[in-house]
Specification:
The protein has 33 helices and 21 strands. The termini are far apart. The protein has 809 residues and is an alpha/beta fold. It folds into 4 domains: 221 residues, Hypothetical protein af1432 (Orthogonal Bundle), CATH 1.10.3210; 237 residues, Rossmann fold, CATH 3.40.50.300; 175 residues, Rossmann fold, CATH 3.40.50.300; 82 residues, no CATH class. Strands 5-6-4-7-8-3-9 form a 7-stranded parallel sheet. A 7-stranded mixed sheet has the order 12-13-11-14-15-10-16, with helices on both faces.
């Protein structure tokens, strides 16, 4: 829009004119929506584009008050604090502008009374009111505006009406002039919003669909992204990066040019080709897919190759290019898969992929962004954080927590990436980790999300949970049962008839380690307490030469710092011809590429037993079967599994049921139990929690569903400990202390982001009740200095837990 000759004085940010900011945010918002392929229950997309423009244009109009302008330009920090009054706040006044503009626009189109459209003024009002906050329950947000008329009148009385009218006239859509708005504002607040919208909102309380929630999160995310984009003065990106849809094929042809003909590689190749051949037959009106094949059969590369080819098909037929989001449950396997994708792109592109092509994101990821698409390759820490947290990349490797707590969220910072999850292909690897109490929630939510936002989900696992009904999910592998029948890698031994004490288990373990001196062992325990006892026992065996000195011993749990965890996993993978004895908690089960001869596992849910079985004879040595044995271990009080899964957990009871009477099973028979296990879970589970969550989501009760929805439960209060275990840790801690001395909070934040990844390589989280040390000043971190290490931290097994009790993984 060409600017008229008027001298604008009001600013939105220091040095940035208010008119320039709101016009830019409106333009960016419209651009985001225009690029998306969305279907909002027959609401025309052009109408959504207009709504996004109006939200962007009005979102900061409340900054026009003299209260805000004085606050913005005050240099003295003490005086600035005194100016931070309720009158200086701009979000509510801006939201009333938004509401008025949107309502007027919809009435001018003659569509205001349409079922879904009539909620757009309320949704838009909330998006603007909350663009600097985390959303609370919508009803509480409406109740909070009661008795705000006097504050509103004082704010409006300080606005320069000439400049405001000049600004309002820049909006190309139907709107009131400032004097008209000023005279109607109290009625709009007290009657139209407080009474009429409150009544309209209450109509949602008995619904369970997600339409209005998804509409809000989309528009809210668009505004958050556009506002932040312009506020930090970020330059616009060029064209999206194209990806060769045959990238994985190119990688495999280079990496495995010798054409290995052993059985496991033949099976992997057959599965790969089977899935690849399905792409042309895919009906793009179906949004949920399954890749369910045995562990060790190359699911990562197969699913990624399919996603790349599906991306190409969508581009041809639907004319948009989806992102690919690869989702994993644990940090321990994100690096592993990320490196695989790096190699794929290096083979296909001839160089290391930039971050706008391949991005790794979790709460401990390095804050560094490299790009060829923004004109140069230099980014500040804040710019890098903005791009990484917004998932501005073609391929994103991330966690279940990041994905689901962005889709179902009350956190401003998490929701910002919502608009980039739209129009994506989302691969959920090891999807069996989704708790069964959320199955119905996930089913309903993802079906709605897929249809509304043209998003595709691929559920990848060896043990597919029965989340979807038969016609709602499509299997990518033809005759998948035939592949499961191919496998005869292990014998599964069920030893759960007798409950063993730790000492009895030690005797059994010693006997088997002695009787099978050339075989590698993986022992998986349910608690840190048990894992440490067994590891220390193995150490004594090696010390007394009961075990060969050439045997590699390894301990893995969250009780040791992340740096050492990753180093140990990498060292295990590199040991090809060395006997290994690995003692671990459940953290090793899903996805970690470990191959051993024998796996001994304390009792757990069937899907966990299946996952840990995938670490045994993983690469299919046909000459000798592996052994997977399951036991029930106890301490003086109870069985260890009851500390983790509870006394009456449904998954445990159904696992006991299907294993009853089975003392020994072939791999084929064992894998065949998976379908029966999930069938029994589905038939017995209650959907009460899922349905309650769906109602809370439909009713816009953000604070309620956010408290209840937790993919990973923590049953105990915890403390973070920084372990100064080496010279690098000491250097990082010194940097941390220096950063705390910086007076400017933005400089402090930026400086810490630079060291955040390295800092948390030395941090563990342990139960609060066993921490004897105090937090370091007011950091919220317990500092374990190098001098304290001998008494507090064991380099092999981690934090020394002197209090009696059971410690979870």
């Amino acid at each position: 829009m060409e600017k008229i000759s008027f001298l604008y004085e009001m600013e939105s940010h220091p040095g940035k004119k208010l008119i320039d900011h709101i016009e830019k945010v409106a333009e960016l918002s419209t651009g985001i929506v225009r690029k998306k392929e969305i279907i909002f229950n027959n609401i025309p997309k052009t109408l959504i584009e207009d709504i996004a423009f109006i939200i962007g244009f009005t979102h900061d109009l409340g900054k026009a008050t003299s209260y805000f302008q004085k606050y913005l330009h005050e240099k003295d920090e003490d005086k600035k604090k005194k100016l931070k009054t309720e009158e200086a706040r701009h979000s509510l006044l801006s939201a009333i502008f938004t509401y008025t503009f949107i309502k007027g626009y919809l009435r001018s189109k003659g569509v205001f009374e349409d079922d879904y459209i009539q909620y757009l003024p309320l949704i838009s009002f909330m998006a603007v009111k909350l663009h600097h906050d985390n959303p609370d329950n919508f009803l509480d947000e409406i109740l909070s505006i009661k008795d705000k008329e006097q504050i509103l009148a004082r704010q409006l009385g300080t606005i320069d009406k000439i400049e405001m009218n000049q600004i309002l006239h820049r909006c190309p859509y139907s709107h009131p002039d400032f004097e008209s708005f000023k005279s109607d504002a109290a009625n709009i607040l007290c009657v139209e919003i407080f009474k009429e919208e409150k009544a309209r909102l209450r109509k949602l309380f008995n619904r369970s669909d997600t339409v209005y929630y998804l509409m809000f999160q989309f528009l809210y995310s668009v505004l958050l992204n556009a506002d932040k984009w312009d506020a930090i003065g970020f330059r616009e990106k060029g064209e999206r990066i194209s990806i060769d849809f045959n990238s994985v094929d190119i990688f495999l042809s280079q990496e495995f040019s010798d054409n290995k003909t052993d059985k496991i590689n033949i099976i992997r190749n057959n599965i790969y080709e089977d899935v690849k051949s399905r792409v042309n037959d895919i009906d793009l009106s179906k949004y949920i897919y399954s890749l369910s094949v045995p562990t060790g059969t190359g699911k990562t590369l197969t699913s990624f190759s399919f996603a790349l080819k599906l991306r190409q098909k969508i581009l041809k037929e639907k004319k948009f290019t989806p992102r690919i989001i690869y989702v994993l449950p644990f940090l321990s396997i994100i690096d592993q898969n990320y490196k695989v994708f790096q190699k794929v792109f290096e083979a296909a592109c001839g160089k290391e992929p930039s971050t706008d092509l391949l991005l790794k994101h979790h709460h401990l990821a390095e804050i560094e962004y490299r790009s060829d698409g923004y004109g140069d390759n230099e980014f500040t820490v804040s710019e890098s954080q903005f791009l990484i947290e917004g998932w501005e990349s073609e391929v994103v490797v991330t966690t279940f927590i990041q994905l689901f707590h962005s889709l179902i969220s009350d956190r401003n910072r998490m929701v910002r990436k919502f608009q980039n999850i739209i129009n994506s292909i989302i691969i959920l690897d090891e999807v069996q980790i989704i708790p069964y109490r959320y199955w119905e929630l996930v089913r309903q939510f993802l079906i709605s999300f897929g249809k509304m936002f043209n998003s595709y989900f691929i559920f990848v696992t060896a043990t597919q949970p029965l989340i979807f009904n038969g016609d709602e999910i499509e299997e990518l592998v033809r005759n998948k049962e035939d592949y499961f029948k191919e496998f005869d890698r292990i014998n599964f031994i069920n030893k759960t008839d007798n409950v063993l004490t730790i000492d009895e288990f030690k005797e059994l373990l010693f006997k088997d380690i002695s009787n099978y001196p050339d075989e590698s062992f993986l022992v998986v325990l349910n608690t840190i307490d048990a894992s440490i006892k067994i590891y220390e026992f193995i150490i004594t065996l090696k010390g007394s030469n009961e075990i060969s000195q050439n045997t590699h011993l390894c301990y893995l749990s969250t009780n040791i710092i992340p740096k050492h965890r990753l180093e140990r996993i990498n060292s295990i993978k590199k040991l090809k011809n060395t006997r290994k004895i690995i003692i671990s908690t459940q953290m090793v089960e899903a996805g970690v590429d470990i191959d051993v001869d024998r796996v001994y596992r304390d009792f757990g849910p069937f899907d966990s037993l299946n996952q840990v079985a995938g670490r045994c004879n993983r690469n299919y040595n046909e000459a000798k079967k592996g052994i997977v044995a399951v036991f029930i271990l106890k301490d003086d009080n109870r069985e260890y599994y009851k500390y983790i899964y509870g006394k009456s957990d449904l998954s445990m009871s159904k696992t006991k049921d299907i294993l009853k009477g089975c003392s020994s099973l072939t791999e084929r028979a064992f894998l065949g139990l998976g379908a029966e296990y999930f069938k029994r879970i589905k038939n017995a589970k209650s959907d009460n929690e899922a349905n309650q969550l769906m109602q809370q989501i439909a009713s816009m009760k953000f604070s309620e569903f956010s408290k209840q929805f937790r993919l990973i439960e923590t049953d105990y209060p915890s403390r973070d400990l920084f372990i100064e275990i080496d010279e690098k840790a000491a250097e990082i801690w010194k940097q941390f202390i220096d950063i705390r001395e910086l007076t400017d909070k933005w400089n402090r934040k930026s400086a810490f982001l630079k060291i955040k990844k390295d800092f948390y390589e030395y941090v563990i989280s342990v139960p609060k009740k066993i921490v004897r040390e105090n937090d370091f000043k007011d950091t919220g971190i317990v500092y374990i200095s190098s001098a304290q290490i001998p008494a507090v931290y064991n380099e092999n097994t981690g934090y020394i837990r002197k209090e009696p009790g059971i410690y979870l993984f």
